[in-house]
Amino acid sequence: MSIYDIPITTIQGEEKKLADYQSKAMIVVNTASKCGFTPQFDGLQELYKKYKDQGLEVLGFPSNQFMNQEPGTSQEAEEYCRQHYGVSFPMFAKVDVRGKNAHPLFQHLTKEAPGIISDQVKWNFTKFLIDEEGQVIKRYAPKTEPKDMEKDIQTLL
Q1: Residue 17: what are its φ and ψ, rounded to 5°?
Q2: Are 150 and 58 in contact (CB under 8 A)?
Q3: Fewer CB atoms < 10 Å away: N or C end of the chain?
Q4: What is the pLDDT of residues 119-133, one digit of tens each?
Q5: Please, which residues have CB within 8 angstroms of residue 73's CB and are 6 or more apart in sequence?
């Protein structure tokens, strides 16, 4: 199965496929609005603004699997990100990112870019860089600041 065949759901409940982002580089990130890493939205937004015209997409997937740090609805998560961090990149419906109910996208990402100790997503703001052909290039730890991904992004674009 190609990453482009994986179904995703928009905040509005519309079913899409990642094929909508084919031929673009992507950062896929699991997010939470009440996390210590939440200020990374600023850096993600900066990367998006700087490189979207060169073919970069940032795709945010809220998740409430880590200490109840995204307790509201998908719409509330999106609204918070837009109001507090000026996020303009696409945000999607809340998903599980680990365990038996993990969304197929995160199952695919963790299989293609396993972690050091465990393949599972360990925390909010785990970031995956995907090239224009849908290949997972690199996985970044939650503590990795978005600006520290810039050289790898430039290499792809």
Answers
A1: -125, 155
A2: no
A3: N
A4: 889 999 999 999 999
A5: 94
Burial class (CB in 10 A: 0-12, 13-18, 19+), 107: middle
81 labelled catalytic? no
Residue 113: closest CA among 47, 37, 27: 27
Residue 102 identity: A
Enumerate the domain spans of the chain.
3-156
CA distance from start to end of the chain:
25
How far apart (Å, rounded) are the C-alpha atoms in residues 157 and 119?
27
Catalytic residue among 3, 8, 27, 35: 35
The tens digit of pLDDT for each residue in 25-35 reads: 999 999 999 99
* Both structure tokens of 3: 């990453």
Residue type, 97: V
Task: State the Cα–Cα distance between residues 88 and 102, nearest whole angstrom.
Answer: 25
